[in-house]
Structure prediction request, 149 residues.
Amino acid sequence: MYTPETDGINHINVYSKGKTELGRLLSNFAHTPFVCDDGRFESVEGYWYWLGNKDDRLRSVYGYNAKSLGRKLPRQKSLSEEEFKTKIKIAINKKIKQNNLMNVLAISRLPFVHYYAWDGHVKDAGYRWIVDHITTLRKWLQEHGYPKY
Prediction:
């Protein structure tokens, strides 16, 4: 069973309030600046919302501030779901490489999960495709020693 009490023992929660540093850094909320084809962003969360409306204020925000600002802005559907997911996966790869997280990711062994936890409550966060991508990237790093871009 995956619970906040066993975070870091039998799993890693990819969550801004997770118990492991790796889980917190892998969260889209993390302040982990990266550069991709669309320019520089302070977080994957800011990039996530930027993809929906191209408001450049989203380049410099992270954490809840990125989500809060992104939710206030009008969305313009310009990408298919597949294109969106591909861009986010590439951003995660760039973030991991550019923030020197490849080694710590490669040596980790616990399964990744993504849930929210507050006041004794636990809720699946969804977006399983993100956790699956991180797991696939880790496997690639373990087998090849460099990320698949």
Notes: The chain has a mean pLDDT of 95. The domain at 4-144 is CATH 1.10.357.40 (Tetracycline Repressor; domain 2). The longest helix spans residues 81-98.
